[in-house]
Amino acid sequence: MRAVVLVVCLAITACNREPAPVTFDGALTADKAALIRHGDRLANVLGCRGCHGKNLEGMLATKYTPQYGPLYASNLTVEVPEYTDAQLDGIIRHGTHPTRKTVWNMPSEIFQNISDPDFEALVAYLRALKPQGKKLPDPQFSTLDKKDIAAGTYKPAVQLVQEFKRRQPINLGPQYALGRYITTVSCVECHGPDLNGGSAAGSGGSVKSPNLIVAGAYSRADFERLMTQGIGAGGRKLNMAMYYVAVGRFAHLTPHERDALYVYLKARADQLSR
Which residues contact 88 (CB under 8 A, 6 or more apart)? Predict the structure, then answer.
């Protein structure tokens, strides 16, 4: 009888236990230095350096599109220390700002999917940076910006967070959880919240990204070359947006993470092809 009670109690405990968070490799370390290194890697994988610069000192985001802004990507080395962890969570994962209500051009719509352990590692890395450079100006909106905002074609991050929350890549079960997770914090930026295709990030709508059902045609070797070198199957030349995302971000994924991403995208392609 006691054995039966014990088994029942253990079963109830297991059922009530929170499922382990899905994270990038290395997020669940208890070593502080390793956690900071993981955050450094995530700054590449998530594209932080693509907007905020190699040293995260910020840059003029509208340098080549002077009809907009001027809009600056913040100098993270001097701004991060100004905020609490909760405020950084608002800015990064929710699109809110403690003084400006919302942020602009910050991909919070995809970063809302960053798991707590990965987020904590990213913040630990940002807080470990030595302040350098100067604080950059807040967003300024040109006449064209204001026109696009009024028309609803240029949206604040806080609004995009809600729109993306309603559309997510298909869930194919726990065995594909890591691959799906990686798509939600990376691929959806260009290929849309459900991976059905869209405008490539940074192209202004001029470059269209395909439905990622196309991944079903890739062998694992071709996919590896795509993810690390930005070269399509058969040596096909890709648009420059995908090339830079591959060599600047996806090349920093671990082989295990690229395996998981490939397996998920292949399973998704098979599901949609039926």
Answer: 80, 123, 126
pTM of the model: 0.89
> How many Å separate Cα 4 from the centre of its chain?
46
Listed in sequence order, the residues at least 6 apart from 247 whose beta carbon sits closer than 8 Å to its beta carbon are 228, 229, 230
Q: How far is CA 251 from CA 5, 119, 186, in A?
A: 51, 20, 13
Cα–Cα distance between 101 and 156 in angstroms, integer?
A: 10
How much is the mean pLDDT over the chain? 90
Could you give the percent of the chain with pLDDT greater than 70?
90
pLDDT per residue as tens digits for the range 161-218: 999 999 999 999 999 999 999 999 999 999 999 999 976 554 455 568 899 999 999 9
Which residue type, as a one-letter code, is found at position 91?
Answer: I
* Cα→Cα distances 17→4, 10, 114, 138, Å: 20, 11, 21, 44
CB-CB contact of 259 with 223 (8 Å): no
Q: Which two tokens stand for residue 228?
A: 């690390």
The residues with which 209 forms a beta bridge, in sequence order, are: 198
The residue type of 139 is P
Does the structure show a pLDDT above 80 at 12? no
Rg (CA), the chain: 20
One-character DSSP codes across 188-249: HHHH-TTSS-EEPTTTTTSSEEPPGGGGGG--HHHHHHHHHH-B-GGGPBPPHHHHHHHHHT
The tokens of 271 are what?
């599901």
- 102: β partners: 96
**Residue 92's closest CA among 177, 178, 154, 185?**
185
Burial status of residue 187 (CB atoms within 10 A of its CB: 0-12, 13-18, 19 or more): buried
